[in-house]
Design brief:
This is Co2+/Mg2+ efflux protein ApaG. By secondary structure, this protein is mainly beta. The protein has no helices and nine strands. Strands 4, 5, 6, 8 and 9 form a five-stranded antiparallel sheet that branches.
Amino acid sequence: MVQQITRGIKISVVTTFEGSFYKNYKMQYAFGYTITIENQSKDSVQLNARHWEILDALNNIEIVSGEGVIGKKPVLKPGESHTYTSGCLLTSPFGAMQGHYSMVNFTTTKKFQVTIPTFKLSAPFAIN
């Protein structure tokens, strides 16, 4: 598990290897990740957007940005958390992801970014 706290928002990430398959004559490696966003601050916050940088073993970078997470824009009161699971495909058996969430503090109405710590994606058979 990888964890990081930014401005009182704790991000925890657990990854899984889901398998491999051929798509468009290329081998694809499927990875899942479960993220828990925990509000350890004194203010209510809302997650509005996400930004990902997905790297494969050859340092190819895919940028993914969008609203919310899996169709939701969770509001977290102090002490609350939100957990979701998603995934990605790589063309290599290992890589990494990193990024940030764009959030708003309901008390101050200020927008801020929460860092998603870099986490590794690796197929068990590819680990040395």
